[in-house]
Specification:
The mean pLDDT is 91. By secondary structure, this protein is α/β, with parallel strands linked by helices. It has a single domain, classed as P-loop containing nucleotide triphosphate hydrolases (Rossmann fold, 3-Layer(aba) Sandwich), CATH 3.40.50. Helix 2 links the parallel strand 2 and strand 3. The relative contact order is 0.25. The protein is 37% helix and 17% strand. It has 6 helices and 6 strands; from the N terminus they run E-H-E-H-E-H-E-H-H-E-H-E. A 6-stranded parallel β-sheet has the order 3-2-4-5-1-6.
């Protein structure tokens, strides 16, 4: 099944990773691919602890320590993230799927990466069409924005809507809540 968690509200990655933890609890194999995110997040730090428990999960952070300036996609950071993302999807992703054979794959922030044009739509559709309507293999796509062509093939869509956010009170990037 193809699941999408998108919107301007908080909780998209949290919902995706909660689903992964549920899946791992049932003995499944999972892959988490985080576009535009570095390995400095709390979730990646937990992953490093999870692999010591010999859980069947693989995790890939395709961002850099600096976040992309969405107003300047021609800068060095955007170029590095684009190269890492495209190279991963074209060359590493097929090998991982074939050799590791995960049951669930999270494409975290793929929606935003597509929205700003870091990854080609046709490549993404070729990958995600394998999940839509497939009860044996699952993918979750997250991101503030997810293109309509992906929402059109999704089996589940959850729009995370913001009613109130502590960012507006000046609390930005709270450790443990936001990264």
């Amino acid at each position: 099944m193809l699941l999408i968690f998108y919107g301007k509200g908080k909780g998209k990655t949290t919902a995706a990773l909660g689903t992964v933890f549920r899946f791992l609890g049932h003995g499944g194999k999972a892959v988490v691919i985080q576009f535009m995110k570095s390995s400095n997040s709390g979730e990646y730090k937990l992953y490093k602890k999870l692999i010591r428990c010999k859980l069947d999960v693989k995790w890939f952070c395709l961002g850099t320590e600096k976040f992309i300036n969405l107003d300047d996609l021609g800068d060095e950071v955007a170029s590095v993230v684009t190269a890492k993302s495209l190279g991963f999807l074209l060359y590493e992703y097929p090998k991982i799927v074939e050799e590791f054979r995960p049951n669930i794959i999270v494409f975290d922030e793929l929606g935003l990466a597509l929205h700003v044009g870091l990854i080609p739509a046709d490549l993404t559709l070729n990958i995600l069409n394998n999940f839509a309507g497939n009860p044996e293999l699952h993918a979750i796509v997250t991101g503030r924005y997810v293109p309509k062509y992906l929402r059109d093939i999704a089996d589940l869509i959850t729009n995370c809507h913001e009613e109130r956010h502590y960012f507006k009170k000046g609390y930005i990037n709270v450790k443990g809540l936001d990264f």
